[in-house]
Records
---
Amino acid sequence: MGKEELPGREIRIGIIGTGFVARGLTLLIREDARYTVSKVLTRRPVDGRENYNLAVEGSQLTNSVDELIENSELVIECSGDPVYVTEPLARILDAGLPVVTMDAELHVTTGSWLARRGHITEAVGDQPGSLALLREEALEMGFKPLVLGNIKGFLNHNPTLEDMEYWSRRNGISLTQVTSFTDGTKLQVEQALVANGLGATIAKDGLNGFECVELADGARRLAEIADKIQAPISDYVLSPTSPPGVFIVATHHPDQASYLKYYKLGEGPYYILVRPFHLCHLELLSTVKRTLRGDDPLLNNSLTPQISVTTIAKRELKAGEVLPRGIGSFDVRGEAVKIADHPDHVPIGLLSGAVVRRNIEPGEEITFGDVDLPDSLALEAWQAIRKEVLNRGKDIADLAAD
């Protein structure tokens, strides 16, 4: 397939997931002559008893990964369940199909392991992909990014079930989604992916997340931290008055200072670039197009991740309890951490069907010694990632000692 244009026919796209994003995608693709939805992979019954509210025929629904592979030239994954989707994605990548995702949770859990198997990329539309695109544009203009930032308007680490049910109904998204957005887990996951995929780090466990009325105030404080540690950082601001988008704080060569002042970016040395929106599935097809052109992945978790998202108890957990899920639950939330500093942490994306071994207090980090996890390919993948990261850190420490 050439770099310049797509084939003059409909390209068959498979989709994994039947939730909010998948529904919007099927509606969008229905109106786009370049693409057609071939199959939609779901775990739910496909016998007509379920109402999926998708813009597809019943015959396009399938429970078979093989059928998805056989009928697709590219797969879009938006399930939000790393434990479930790791196995089908491994098979899809092994079959040589490229994968476009809107699933930061997958990337920070098993994405680095999957990236060794084939082409997998996060899409523009969610904040990480939007930040990757903004960074790409900033580098083209000669900027040197210091902060890769997310704009958050509201945060409550321990929301009530009643409140989350209300917002779930009002916004038309699942209870788990709205809970993970509100308690900050989704944000922590996104910024971990940004750090790993775009060559940044984090300045502290759980990020800084400065509260500010004006975006510029919080953004400049983050830039000062990045300057101090001499490394670009992934972080966020909590600013209810700012747009729901992403931003970069960067420096530029002093020779450009007068031009940047004229272009309304201020006196410097810190310049703030803002992408004031992220339109999720509406932007996703731009990443599909660049993938089909043969471009490199826009963003994935990299082959050498440094950051993960650990699991923090929201409430007292009793020995013997079963935790159905981690992300979007009322039991736990996620915080971005350096893997080397938290070698035994349980990534929140793996916490599915976990059995608690001991009583755990609110605010405690959950380690592999605290829970029993069901066997899964996702767990095996994480163990391989963890071993490689820790071994690489040991090798670096040994070289420094020599």
Note: Residues 307-401 form a domain with the Type Iii Antifreeze Protein Isoform Hplc 12 fold (CATH 3.90.1210.10).
---
Amino acid sequence: MTHAPDVIFLGPSMRHEDARLILPDAIYLPPAAMGDVLGAAQRFRPHSISIVDGTFLSNMSVFHKEILYAIDLGIWVLGSSSMGALRAAECDDYGMIGIGEIYQKLVSGEIEDDDEVALTHADEAEGFKPLSDAFVTIRATLEGAHASGILNASEAEVLIAMQKVRYFPDRRLSSIPSDAREIGIDPDRVEVLRDWARHHVIDPKRDDALALLQAVAELPAGQVPREDRPGVVLSGVFSATLARDVVVATPEGNEVTFDRMRRYAALHEDDFESVMREARLTLALLTLGGQIGGAPTADELAQARVQVALRIGINVDELDDYFMSVDLDTRGIYALLAGEAMSLRLENSWLGRSRMGMISEQFMNALRLRNRYLEVKAAAAMQETAAKSVVFEPRPSYLALIYTHSALTDWVFPEKWDEYIDHHEFGSFAELSEGFLTSVKAHHAFFGTGVLQPDDDVAIIVSDDGPMMTRGR
């Protein structure tokens, strides 16, 4: 079994290159924005997701509920340093693991303001290089200068306060010397302080990122135990997020959301209208099916898996790999199968059943809407006409007709004949056998084929021995 990867959202708190020296097999991603945790959960099926850095100005911040949703999937979620520490302090009661000094200070109330970890930084091409300094770093560095005797307590307190009142993009260690001169510190001590701010930086965010990497390496090998998962309630807003805003990626690394894919298809894909209509019908069936019998049962979901595999054209045991390849997580797989299960439930309920073959009218309409009506009409009429020119004396047995039809076509023996006859509305086994007889006669008329004789020990068991339904000409 392939080991599930560890995913880490990391940016200015620590360089990706440095982190790989400690945890080389992890997947490192840029700072997390809203939807990125959901996307990582679907794309990588990870063992853990760690948030060190995240966005908050240029994009919406990572959503609390997506963190809990990932934990619900069994993924370990950790946070430290920056956005990760903030979210861990807010979500630790629900299973997120907080790491490091900043997280501990947020939990204790020693740090109350989100802006204390905020900074500006360059883009990914420049390695998310910081363009300002986080207040937690400035404060720790000035407190270190006090502890080393460079500043007295009052001076350190004033210099810290001067940085605190600044807008976070304007906070910089490089401005400490000018601040020191402004409050009257003598030039020789200012130079000592300048050297300290350059070469003795105390960076809690980096320290906490290092601690997180170590914590990831020490995580249990399996998933989060089921009893420790939060049990996320899918509100309307969050359900919409799952449906629209999850970021998925191509093998080439190009990213897009589900909503952007749908909008693209509306403008560029020829089959958009038919796919959209099927989507709307499935949504309606999910609602209606839930009112008739409640949620799908385990048996209905198992039947749905078989039908989905048939529709896609793969084996049932290949379905899970297919689902992973098309960006479905556990909830998404259930939603897809539930839609198919509800369709099957309604199709096979009294709502979808007909009497005396009246389903033929809707079936003809379905052929007309697919522009296949004339094609099927011509083929069926030709078969009927050809079959009338052939007389078998004596009439072949049911088994002989079935085996011959199967050998001449792609038709496959059903496992349960009663269910097959009922589902296809043949009315009775005798009615079905008439169809086999017509098929075998027509093949004989066209190609001169004979009749196969089955093995003596083969039998077909059906319980329906009632009369054929009345058929029109």
Note: The chain has a mean pLDDT of 88.
---
Amino acid sequence: MILPIYLLGTEILREETQVVEDDSPEIQQLIDDMIETMHAAHGIGIAAPQVGRSERIFIVDVSSMEEDFSEAGIEIPDQPMVFLNAEVIDEADVDSEFEEGCLSIPDIHEIVSRPKGLTLRYHDRTFTEREESFGGMLARVIQHEYDHVDGVLFIDHLSAFKRRLLKRRLQDIREGHTEADYTVFAKDVGVIEPEDTA
């Protein structure tokens, strides 16, 4: 089922998530719904708070960028990747800059600096514990989604000056004024279908 994506301004995007203790049909359904929602919105990652849920879950699917990875000689793991209860245990000392956007903050893209790589301990969809290192674009997408389960948004990495420049546009998004081509949820408006956005 495709779920509404919660926009900037909804409280759940700023709350820390809860550890998923056990597998269940409900958790597996949530994972399926998150994947379907992410694909419908043409995203490459999504976290549970973005669909109004408080579980410590995020999903990454960079298969749309497979050609770019192949040209760089990088083999990507099977997609989508499901991360439950993820914990960063190491980060690269060197940062890189790249433009990022977010399904919860439509139509805003800004350069963000992040570590070039990281090592993560997490459970996959089968609740198997894993410890893996990721680099490059995959590391960036994972860090972006990992931020979500800690209540952090990519705009938090921008300078105060840059956030001031974006203030009006960010306020418009909080109020539900967006041209997103997917279903969203705004705090004071409720669910907004794509044909209703403006």
Note: The CA atoms of residues 122 and 130 lie 5 Å apart.
